[in-house]
Design a protein that fits this description.
The complex is a heterodimer of chains A (about 375) and B (about 325). Chain A has about 375 residues and is mainly β. In chain A, about 10% of the residues lie in helices and about 35% in strands. Chain A contains 2 helices and 24 strands. In chain A, the strands form 6 sheets. In chain A, strands 3-2-1-24 form a 4-stranded antiparallel beta sheet, with no helix packed on it. Chain A is globular. The relative contact order of chain A is 0.13. The mean pLDDT of chain A is about 90. Chain B is an alpha+beta fold and about 325 residues long. A 6-stranded mixed beta sheet of chain B has the order 13-8-3-4-5-14, sandwiched between helices. In chain B, strands 1-2 form a two-stranded antiparallel ribbon. In chain B, strands 6-7 form a two-stranded antiparallel sheet. In chain B, strand 1 and strand 2 form a beta hairpin. In chain B, helix 2 runs parallel beside helix 7 and helix 5 packs antiparallel against helix 6. Chain B is globular. In chain B, about 45% of the residues are buried. The chains are: A mainly beta (about 375), B alpha+beta (about 325). Chains A and B meet through helix 1, strand 13 and strand 14 of A and helix 2, strand 9, strand 10, strand 11 and strand 12 of B.
Chain lengths: ~375, ~325
């Protein structure tokens, strides 16, 4: 009798354990696709690649630095985005985004706020209308560090209350009030406007202008303008729909992404002679590439792209050999032997195996971190 | 005979003690049963949600005297069509506190035709402000008569047969995208809106908020995906531009759904709870999931938006006037 009782107890325990285990096992069988990204505090997988210098990037509203294979969180998760370095590398610019407005801040390279360059918060026009606030996005400094360039939809007046939110590229003297700044571009209405200014060392800016093509689709184009208020000129065709320009350290190449109006994104580079771009060269066409940035030493391009199908964006590295392969070594050509018999056939060269060019693949630096792909990367050499 | 030993005692003791084989068999049975029960417990909430959301029976008002009972699938399409082809009407509504339950406008109406044999999908976005007889703007049909009225008005005006419908609420889309871990989308341009309705998590459904969804490839969570597909004030094409974005997001959801595992179903069902209704039966849903996964060529998905000259503005009460002489041949071509 006792044995049966013990058996019943044992079976009951066994069933509870078995049922619970089954439930827990199934709950652990969720796909990795739905798993939330981790915080970038771990050492990335690709230990064989050590990127030079320090990269600044963003996850969940916090700025991180990535140096010698390790991440360091610089700010709390409080709407921080779009880091950009001072040209001398001494400080950082970054945007702090709130619900209705965003401002440009100056931070030390370790994330301490040292100043504010804009003041975009405004009282609501009425209870239903927060449109008097303004956005500042994509801040960059001119090479002399005297002018702040940014995409900006202000300043606002009471008569501005309409549906057309116009982001234009503004240039504002550092530390000056916005009224001392000037709009460098004239954006197309109802397009999203002009974004991502890239100040050039020789003066002028390259930026992304959004417009409608002949089919009514909205497309991005790289434009160049060399002074405030000038019309400027398009650098890329509408059909390529390019955006997110990045200048190489030698200022001779531009990296960008082009989507060709589809749900794809190609890493594209082109030569730059100071006023025009060379032919567009697609470097990567099988990833959803975002925010390319050149390594300060010219050894490659870092960018963000999903770690898998429909997954959050990770940090990737493309060595220079992929887009600028070294010139092949010359194949030896047989020469007639001096003093050889006249009219004799030339010696047939022994077949030389021509080395197959090795395809250099992008290297995935992080695996499950999920970076903000709308925020440009900054890279300090 | 030893003292205290009675004849038959050993036999009874032997009968009362279980043999090792029987004990093992019972234990294995118990493990199998309880493991199965644990599995059921895991999937029961999802099954209940699916049961409640699917196989909705709706009454489709018809111009003919007899009312057609619109029943769950499988329902053969009346139009001549390819083997197994079917047409679904996708409806999306902002079901916030501005509206009474089930009396909401459909901000999004997309006719989807699926041809399994050729793995072709056609999505036709119907402008929500399209003028139709009886309702004015077509988005009011669902508000007045539920899914049945929405289906009827589409069938009568577009001369198509709708096999099934799927309705998703505002929060439903947000929760579904969050439940599948977000989606990857290439936003074609910055979507900026100073008068976006603050009705999802805001204090009053009549308040507005500022929205800025930046351009480029990105991973969107549910809230930002909703902002991307719902905003229209900053778009010269207004509802047409929004329709294009809605189709982009639908395709991104489909792409992400291919990565999911059965273990994700309960979380997904919990997200959907009360925010999704469909006339498609549970058995058919089970058959459609692998079918959807097999559609892996994005070029086989045709996207149609009824921009001018198919429609033009200036209709009554701000509605959009349809040019049926252009629309109907187009619809007939892709929704035979």
């Amino acid at each position: 009798m006792i044995a049966k009782f013990l058996l019943a107890i044992g079976l009951a325990v066994l069933m509870v354990v078995s049922g619970t285990t089954s439930y827990i096992y199934l709950s652990t069988r969720q796909s990795k696709a739905v798993a939330a990204p981790q915080k970038p505090t771990i050492t990335p997988r690709a230990k064989q690649v050590t990127l030079p210098g320090t990269i600044y990037l963003v996850q969940s509203g916090a700025l991180y630095s990535f140096s010698v294979g390790r991440f360091h969180q610089l700010t709390p998760e409080a709407g921080w985005t779009m880091p950009a370095l001072y040209p001398d590398g001494s400080q950082l610019l970054a945007v702090k985004r709130s619900a209705f407005y965003s401002d440009v801040y100056v931070l030390s390279r370790f994330g301490n706020v040292t100043g504010t360059l804009t003041n975009n918060q405004a009282a609501p026009r009425n209870r239903w209308d927060p449109g008097a606030n303004a956005w500042s996005f994509y801040p960059r400094l001119s090479s002399d560090q005297r002018t702040l360039f940014m995409s900006y939809d202000g300043p606002k007046t009471a008569g501005d209350a309409n549906f057309n939110v116009v982001m234009q590229v503004w240039g504002v003297p550092i530390g000056a009030a916005i009224r001392q700044g000037r709009s460098w571009t004239t954006a197309n209405d109802y397009t999203g406007g002009d974004m991502q200014p890239l100040p050039l060392p020789a003066g002028g800016i390259i930026y992304t202008k959004y417009s409608y093509d002949s089919n009514g689709n909205r497309v991005g184009q790289l434009w160049f303008t060399n002074r405030a208020g000038s019309f400027g000129k398009a650098l890329t065709p509408q059909a390529a729909s390019c955006a997110q320009p990045s200048l190489s350290p030698d200022a001779l190449n531009i990296a960008m992404i082009c989507t060709y109006g589809k749900q794809v994104s190609y890493l594209t580079i082109a030569t730059w002679n100071g006023s025009t771009l060379g032919p567009l060269q697609t470097v990567i066409s099988d990833q959803l590439v975002a925010q390319p940035i050149w390594a300060p030493d010219g050894s490659g391009i870092a960018y963000l792209a999903p770690g898998g199908p429909a997954a959050p964006f990770q940090l990737w590295w493309l060595p220079k050999a992929r887009y600028a392969p070294p010139a092949p070594s010359p194949v030896p050509v047989p020469t007639p032997t001096p003093g050889g018999p006249l009219n004799a056939p030339l010696p047939t060269p022994s077949p030389v195996a021509v080395p197959t060019p090795q395809v250099v693949k992008p290297v995935q630096i992080t695996t499950n971190l999920g970076f903000d792909a709308t925020s440009p990367l900054a890279w300090l050499g | 005979m030893p003292l205290g030993f009675k004849p038959g005692h050993r036999a009874r003791a032997s009968r009362g003690r279980l043999s090792p084989f029987r004990t093992l068999t019972i234990a294995l049975l118990a493990i199998a049963l309880s493991a199965t029960a644990g599995g059921f417990a895991y999937f029961i909430p999802a099954a209940v949600t699916a049961w409640n959301a699917t196989a909705q029976v709706v009454n489709v008002p018809s111009p003919s005297p007899a009312t057609i009972l619109f029943s769950p699938s499988p329902s053969p399409s009346q139009a001549p069509q390819s083997e197994g082809a079917f047409t679904v009407l996708l409806l999306g509504s902002d079901d916030d506190s501005k509206f009474f339950a089930d009396h909401v406008l459909t901000q999004s109406m997309i006719l989807v035709r699926v041809v399994p044999a050729t793995k072709e999908v056609t999505m036709l976005s119907i402008p929500r402000d399209l003028y139709v007889q009886g309702y004015g703007k077509i988005d009011g049909a669902y508000s007045y008569g539920g899914a049945g009225a929405a289906i009827a008005v589409v069938q009568q005006n577009f001369r198509v047969h709708v096999d099934d419908y799927i309705w998703v609420g505002l929060l439903g889309l947000i929760k579904v995208i969050d439940a599948i871990g977000g989606i990857d989308v290439v936003t074609t341009n910055p979507v900026l809106d100073d008068y976006y309705p603050s009705d999802v998590y805001g204090g009053s459904p009549y308040e507005t908020q500022r929205v800025a969804v930046l351009a480029g490839p990105q991973h969107l969570d549910g809230l930002h995906a909703m902002e991307y597909v719902r905003s229209r004030h900053g778009d010269l094409q207004s509802d047409f531009g929004r329709s294009k974005r809605q189709q982009q997001v639908l395709m991104a959801i489909r792409q992400k759904a291919k990565q999911l595992a059965p273990g994700d179903i309960p979380a997904l069902a919990a997200a959907i709870g009360g925010e999704l209704k469909t006339s498609i039966g549970l058995d058919r849903v089970a058959r459609l999931i692998p079918l959807a996964a097999s559609f892996d060529n994005p070029d086989s998905i045709r996207q149609i938006v009824l921009v001018p000259p198919y429609t033009h503005g200036g209709g009554p009460d701000g509605s959009i006037t349809p040019n049926w002489s252009l629309i109907l041949p187009l619809v007939h071509q892709y929704f035979p």
